[in-house]
Every structure is written in structure tokens, then in C-alpha cells.
Amino acid sequence: MIKLFSLKQQKKDEEGSARAGGSQKKASAAQLRITKDLNELNLPKTCNTEFPDPDDLLNFKLIICPDEGFYRGGRFVFSFKVGPNYPHEPPKVKCETAVYHPNIDLEGNVCLNILREDWKPVLTVNSIVYGLQYLFLEPNPEDPLNKEAADELQSNRRLFEQHVQRAMRGGYVGSNYFERCLK
Amino acid sequence: MADGEVQTLDYQQRRWHNIRKLLERSGPFCHPDFEPSAEILDFIMNSCKVLIVGAGGLGCELLKDLALMGFKKLHIVDMDTIELSNLNRQFLFRKNDIGLSKAKCAVEFVNKRVPGCEAVAHHCSIQDLDEGFYRQFHIVVCGLDSIVARRWLNGMLMSLLQYNDDRSLDQSSVIPLVDGGTEGFKGNARVILPGMSACIECTLDLYPPQKTFPLCTIANTPRLPEHCIEYVKVLQWAKENPWGSSTSLDGDDPQHVAWVYEKAQERATKYGITSVTYRLTQGVLKNIIPAVASTNAAIAATCATEVFKLATSCCTNMNNYMVLNMSEGVYTYTFAAEKRPDCIACSNTTRSMEIESNATLQAIYDKLCEDKGYLMKSPGITTIINGRNKTLYMSSIKSIEEKTRDNLKKKITELGLYNGADILVADVTTPNTLTIKLKFSNNLDDDMGR
């Protein structure tokens, strides 16, 4: 136990005096943690990151180019925004590439449990990368965000596959236009 | 004793009668080092500086409690202004005060009401105040509603710690943090001795995660009125951008709330869901849990008592985390939260590295990989220069490696580093990002005071 009272009898510095003088700003806990996460990022060979500003580790892009499954040959860009409350709160992740996918809607919202309700501070950026990669390998029609795509995947796999291909080549699926995203 | 004080002596005697009983007599619960004396009252009245962070529900209580206990050198900081909905429990404010600074109104009220009190208000955010400001206090007590703010304050107090040459903690640099929090009928109070006991970051997983619903549920199978409101908040707002794409949803803007309310109602009707109300909309948007005045009073009283104990040693402190739950009956329990040996905030005792002032970044990198004390694999090195983060070198990410590779050849002084600057180093070999202070070995005319 600390002997505070005896220590505290000494007079404290007056505000701003002594050692102070424009000292270096301290890194926030979020900053320390994301630096650690990124330095240990172990990307699968289908993934890559891009940092528009290498000094800003809180905002970056993840590019996934699946090499198997429905989305093989496509190139999908996700934006990551890491907030000051990381890792208490997950990063905000959006898909910037228009994609015909049961778990990604046309505004780029992604339905991945660890990005919302199942996020835990022990998870890392790497966990999210693997989660997103998994979405392309195993689209999950049980948790639909694009309901049309999900219903189609369940009822007519062939047609779904054709639509995915058409969207990736650039074209209309139903009334929605998709930009070409093949590599 | 000055003449003016003689007149009030009789009143003073009676006023501090009860406090004196605690401070001028010994007892079985006293701290082992406690020595009863009249000086202690003098200390809390004339020397002991306490910072109260937050002038809301807990802050009003804390300011009142501490002022009545005899503390005079009180400072209180809050960036908020008074709103109508505060008045039911933030009892230092009146209807006429709406729109004014919480910190200033609270101080004005208490200084007028409690003779001798010299509280000082700071109407700004905690991040606007620097190390020099925080260092002047003996004790910090906070009543905040935000985890981000708690973590920031925790980090600030950790950064004020000084270590001796043998890496032991210099106890005179410890500023205890007493933290209170409430949510409805539940609350907690805790005592943190930075560098010595569990800190905010050690126990971060104790904070419940924000209540969220799976995105697919709110998009496709809403069942609750909350699902409808979340739908409008998360999906529909970004799609329709009713005030243009540059305006983000503001839960304090009545027009925004009204828009969300209307759209959520439409959606609820479509799915046969009832009871979307304006109040609920407000609640979901701002994550409001109704504040209960009696919970605030109980938690603030606990915190104020702990501050009193810390300042006087007249009683040992709680060890170190108390929970209070009044939602069914009254339940309370106190336990010792444990310090995490790998805590990102409080285990990060700054190390120092000797380096020549004309060395290159490569020299630092090599030292990190080859020196016995480090033996790192692929250290990522960043720093903060003029308040901005700067990535010096990081090999594990290709795009960053390419853009920072040239830095290795540069002199560290060219990169903006100086004697006494901190670099942050992350590596697989350490559980956390390390803070390393550079010490120029051939430094004659140092710029330590920078």
C-alpha cells in the first residue's frame, strides 16, 4: 500500500511549471494497439493492404482477390476506419466495390458477425481479414443483407453464379448496375 | 492565525467537529502509517488539489461532497453546457442556466454556498489540457459517461509516472484516480493507483459491449422497435442522406431525430411492429439509459469517501473495485481487480535507448534486432511529431515498407527525432507496443527541454 499522505505533503508544482513545457504528445491506447495489430498482420496471399497515408494507420484499405469460389478473379476493396475506442469497438468496415453478394448490400454494408454483435477486444484486424475472405468463399444465405441474392443462391445456384459473373464483368443484375471488378 | 479567522473560530470549531474526530484520533481501520494530527485538516483545506472530471450527474455530487468535506482547492472540468433534461438530478443548475457551461455554473454555485471553497472551473474537453495541468493535482476523481474519455485520462496519468534508474516506480509521481460510473440503477466505483494497481485498460473487457443487433436482422427480419430505428440509423440514413451526404446523423438535432422517428415508424408499420416512439428513437440514437439520481448520489459519495481516505490516510482504501446494483433490492460487492502484466497502458514503462545523435534510423532498427535487451524480428517503428503520428519504418506491410524504406538511410534528427523523444515499437516478440525514449549519447548541447 502506498503512503500517499506522507508523499502528498510535499507541495505540487504549479500548473505548467517546471518540467512541462510543450512535451511530446503521448500515443493513445488505440494507436498503440493498431500499430501492434498491423505490424503482425499476416495476410493470406489473396489479400493486400493499401495505406493512402503511411502516417495514418487508422484508415486503410484491404483488397481481396479470391482465387476460388464464386468470386474468383474479382478484386474487392474494403475501407477500414479504426476509431479512438479501438479495440473496445470494432473498426468500421465498408465494401467499396459494388458486388452481388448475399451478405453485402449495394451501399457496401457488410454483414459479418465480428464486425458488430460478436466483436471482442481480443480480436484483431487479422481476424476481420479472415472473416471477410471467408465471406467470398462461403457466402451465407442464412444471414442475408442482399435478400434477392440470398434467395437466388438457395433456390438456383447456377443462376446465382451467372449473376455473380455478370456483375463482376460489369453489367446489370435486375435493375442494379455493377462496375466491372475483374482483375 | 489572522484576525479575520478569530471571529469565525467558534463556527470553525463546530463546522469541522466531525471531520476532526476522524483525523485527530486513531482507530482500528486506520492506514498503518496514519498519525493523527491537526495538520491533516490543514492539508486537505489548504494544500490538497483535487481535480473533478465531469460536471454532470456524478460531477455535481462530487463537487458538493468534496467541498463539504473541507477540500477547497478543487478544479472541475467539463466541456458540456446545461440542458433542460439535466435539471432533475444535476442539482447545482437552474432553469436560467440552460445553455451555460456546466463546470462554470457548478463552481459558481458551490463557491457561493460553501464558505471558503475556492473551486476553479475549466470549460473545455480533457484533451485540451496538457501534462503540466494534470501534474499539479494530488488526486483525480472522475464521473464520466464515456469509455474513450476514461481511457484518455488513464493514459495521461500513466504518462506522468516517473521511474527510478533501477526501473522501480517513483511513488511521488503517482496521482491516484478514483473513477465512478453509473447506468440506471447500477454503478461502480474504483480506486486506481497508476503503475501500482489495475488500471482502466487492464480491465477494459469489463465494460459491456455496446448493444448491437446483427445487420441482417435489422435489414431483413426486424422484430423489435429498436430494429426499425437501427435500420434507419445504420442503413437508410446513408442511402437517402436527407441533409446531403456531408451531414452525418446527429442524435442531438431534433430535426434529425424526427426524420429517423418518421422513417422508423413507416418500417415498423410494414412489419407489424408497434411502439416505436420519439423517446425510444432518441434513446436508441444516443444510447441513452435513464440516469437515476440516487445511484449517482451513492456512487459519488463512495468516490468522495475514497478521495478523503487517499488524502488523509485516516482509513485504508477500498481494494479496489466496487459494484453496486439497485435494480432488485440493494446489492454491493467489492473485489480486487488484478493488474495485467501485459497491460497496454500500465505495463508500458518507458525504456530508454542510447544512440548517437548523428545515427541513422537503420542504426535504431539494427539495435532493436541485435541488442540483447530486444532481439526483435521485424520491428515496426512509429513516433509522434508535433502532435501528429508518423510512421518511421514498418516492414510487414508492403505499401508502408515501400513508402518508408528511404527513412532507414536518413539521420534520426532529419526525421524530426530529438534527444528525449519517444519512439513506439511493435514487434511479435513483445505483447505490446513499447515506448522507447531516445538518449543521445554524444549529446553536449542537448535539447531535452523541447
From TrEMBL, chain A:
<dbReference type="GO" id="GO:0061654">
    <property type="term" value="F:NEDD8 conjugating enzyme activity"/>
</dbReference>
<keyword id="KW-0547">Nucleotide-binding</keyword>
<comment type="pathway">
    <text>Protein modification; protein neddylation.</text>
</comment>
<comment type="similarity">
    <text>Belongs to the ubiquitin-conjugating enzyme family.</text>
</comment>
<dbReference type="GO" id="GO:0005524">
    <property type="term" value="F:ATP binding"/>
</dbReference>
<keyword id="KW-0833">Ubl conjugation pathway</keyword>
<dbReference type="InterPro" id="IPR016135">
    <property type="entry name" value="UBQ-conjugating_enzyme/RWD"/>
</dbReference>
<protein>
    <recommendedName>
        <fullName>E2 NEDD8-conjugating enzyme</fullName>
        <ecNumber>2.3.2.34</ecNumber>
    </recommendedName>
</protein>
<dbReference type="InterPro" id="IPR050113">
    <property type="entry name" value="Ub_conjugating_enzyme"/>
</dbReference>
<dbReference type="Pfam" id="PF00179">
    <property type="entry name" value="UQ_con"/>
</dbReference>
<keyword id="KW-0067">ATP-binding</keyword>
<feature type="domain" description="UBC core">
    <location>
        <begin position="29"/>
        <end position="173"/>
    </location>
</feature>
<dbReference type="InterPro" id="IPR023313">
    <property type="entry name" value="UBQ-conjugating_AS"/>
</dbReference>
<feature type="active site" description="Glycyl thioester intermediate">
    <location>
        <position position="111"/>
    </location>
</feature>
<feature type="region of interest" description="Disordered">
    <location>
        <begin position="1"/>
        <end position="28"/>
    </location>
</feature>
<dbReference type="InterPro" id="IPR000608">
    <property type="entry name" value="UBC"/>
</dbReference>
<keyword id="KW-0808">Transferase</keyword>
UniProtKB/TrEMBL annotation, chain B:
<dbReference type="InterPro" id="IPR023318">
    <property type="entry name" value="Ub_act_enz_dom_a_sf"/>
</dbReference>
<comment type="pathway">
    <text>Protein modification; protein neddylation.</text>
</comment>
<dbReference type="InterPro" id="IPR030468">
    <property type="entry name" value="Uba3_N"/>
</dbReference>
<dbReference type="GO" id="GO:0005634">
    <property type="term" value="C:nucleus"/>
</dbReference>
<protein>
    <recommendedName>
        <fullName>NEDD8-activating enzyme E1 catalytic subunit</fullName>
        <ecNumber>6.2.1.64</ecNumber>
    </recommendedName>
</protein>
<dbReference type="GO" id="GO:0005737">
    <property type="term" value="C:cytoplasm"/>
</dbReference>
<keyword id="KW-0833">Ubl conjugation pathway</keyword>
<dbReference type="Pfam" id="PF08825">
    <property type="entry name" value="E2_bind"/>
</dbReference>
<dbReference type="InterPro" id="IPR035985">
    <property type="entry name" value="Ubiquitin-activating_enz"/>
</dbReference>
<dbReference type="GO" id="GO:0005524">
    <property type="term" value="F:ATP binding"/>
</dbReference>
<feature type="domain" description="E2 binding">
    <location>
        <begin position="353"/>
        <end position="441"/>
    </location>
</feature>
<keyword id="KW-0547">Nucleotide-binding</keyword>
<dbReference type="Pfam" id="PF00899">
    <property type="entry name" value="ThiF"/>
</dbReference>
<dbReference type="InterPro" id="IPR045886">
    <property type="entry name" value="ThiF/MoeB/HesA"/>
</dbReference>
<dbReference type="GO" id="GO:0019781">
    <property type="term" value="F:NEDD8 activating enzyme activity"/>
</dbReference>
<feature type="active site" description="Glycyl thioester intermediate">
    <location>
        <position position="216"/>
    </location>
</feature>
<keyword id="KW-0067">ATP-binding</keyword>
<dbReference type="InterPro" id="IPR000594">
    <property type="entry name" value="ThiF_NAD_FAD-bd"/>
</dbReference>
<keyword id="KW-0436">Ligase</keyword>
<comment type="similarity">
    <text>Belongs to the ubiquitin-activating E1 family. UBA3 subfamily.</text>
</comment>
<dbReference type="InterPro" id="IPR033127">
    <property type="entry name" value="UBQ-activ_enz_E1_Cys_AS"/>
</dbReference>
<dbReference type="InterPro" id="IPR014929">
    <property type="entry name" value="E2-binding"/>
</dbReference>
